[in-house]
Amino acid sequence: MSTLSFPGNPRSLFVVASVGVASLMALGLLSLSAGSSNSSDKQRTKRKPSRRRKPKVYLRGLYNLGNTCFMNSTLQSLASLDAFNAYVERCIALLPDSDRNSVDAAIAMQLKHVLDLLSPQLSRVAAYSPRSLINSLSHKGRWIASRNEQDAQELFQMLSSTLQSVVRNAETSLFDSGFLTQHLPIENGIVSTSQQSDGNEPMKNDSQSSSPLAASQSSFASARAVENPLLGMAASRTACVRCGYIEAIRHSTFDNLSLTVPRAHTTSIEECLAMYTVIDRLDDFKCRHCSIVATLARVKRDIAKCDSELAVQDKASKRTKRVAATAATLREQQHVLDNALANNPEADLPGIQLASPPPSVSTRQTMIARPPKILVLHLSRSIYLPTGGTAKNPACVQLQHFLDISPFTTTGHISTNASTPISGPAVPVNKYSAESLAEIRRRNCLYRLSAMVFHSGAHDSGHFYAYRSVKAANSDDVQTDVNILTDSDQWFMVSDIRTVEVSLESVLDAGNGYLLFYERV
Question: Under DSSP, is residue 13 helix (H, G, I), strand (E, B) or coil?
């Protein structure tokens, strides 16, 4: 067996071996890298596209200027509502130059400035002092500028009423300018909307567009077209249990619903709404229908008495003539009363003194007739003690991210039974099948929680802070019945200048909510 010998330097064996191994490794690596390249190409074709990372957002805090947490939390919540921010901008756009120095105009413009500053930012921003807004509000309510504990709901109502005043002033400013008295009356134009076309658009004649009043009419229409997203309509019905008469359904507008919180350890927002729409029993109700029936019975008895007296008296006597005149008047009253019972018991009855029958039992109920675009729910937690004092109801109110209010709204079919709801039953709560979800959305009854004012502490003291959502970048996509229940918004807890990102679950489980802001989806 021969051996290989390498003359010269003994390191030459190591060099040759290293070159051979390196060559083999190179070939192996080439083969390995080629195999891995092929496998990575296959994986790349199977890999699903990754979701875009959410950009980090920051919220601006508000300085507490002395027990102004009630204002800071309310402003933070309102800043989360897109429809409300757009409404404020439209109100300011309607302000005439002559009205921009008024108190309401100053409040509206300062409010818009603060809401703009509270919009989400892509970088850290310094806190802001809302002192200018406080100074403007103090001209309308001096309690705003005091350093005492104040109520967030009262501030919300002041802001809402101020914006409504701005719109009303814009509607009347054109009349104050005198353009309607200087020109011919507007007919079939924007001012008169009693006639409607098939497309639910105000009917216009051909000469309107060329009229010299076109610009004025357009300005007036802009004022009339400003829709307040906070305004809804409630329907109230009172019915007599004894005679079954139902008074005319009375409608009233609201910008927030005050819900009584049940005295329980744990309750739900649906139970609070159910208490708002519950059928109440009234034991001292004076029914107009019963009064007319009793009055008609009295008139008939008086007519019978007059007829019997006329039958036995001398027709030529003065007393007979007086009795005959009385009987004629009574018959006229009988005709009026019969007509009122048949057509409209609420009609005026001049010259007729209605009888007062014993009070009857009646029922009264209030339901939502027209849901607003933004549903604001005030959870009233005041408890009135036997001693005359007040305390806070600490009940934990469980919230729903998506709230269906269809069981608490009217359907257009009015019940004539005093013991049954005004309307109903509607689509069951939280049963979002394709059919029920479409019906709920058609009736504008599905809402998503967007913000909440939270209160911690006792009835007369404590601290307000806010939970507010920040809509995702793709939230402008068209919402369908398929993706309507998906939500990728970010939630933040904002307490004056402190902002912390939190989970949706922690918001829903907070329990001690005070003002809830739901947006219609």
Answer: helix
On the 0-12 / 13-18 / 19+ scale of CB atoms within 10 A, 142 is exposed
Q: In sequence order, which ranges of 178-212 are alpha helices (DSSP H)?
A: 179-182
The span from the CA of 217 to the CA of 227, in Å, is: 18
The neighbour count for residue 176, using CB atoms within 10 Å, is 12
Residue-wise pLDDT for 202-248, tens only, equals 444 444 444 544 544 455 455 556 889 999 999 999 999 988 898 88
The position carrying tokens 């403007």 is 136
First CA to last CA across the chain, in angstroms? Answer: 92
Q: What is the pLDDT of residues 168-214, one digit of tens each?
A: 888 765 455 444 444 444 333 333 333 334 444 444 444 444 454 45
Burial 423-461 (b: 16+ CB within 10 A, else e): bbebbebeebeeebbeebbebbbbbbbbbbbbbeeebee
pTM confidence score? 0.75
* SS3 assignment for 186-242: CCCCCCCCCCECCCCCECCCCCCCCCCCHHHHHHHHHHHHCCCCCCEEEEEEEEECC
Of 452, 455, 463, 468, the residue nearest 500 (C-alpha): 468
CA nearest neighbour of 292 among 237, 357, 375: 357
Task: Count CA atoms within 13 Å of residue 52 on its CB side.
Answer: 7
Phi then psi dihedrals of residue 230, to 5 deg: -85, -20
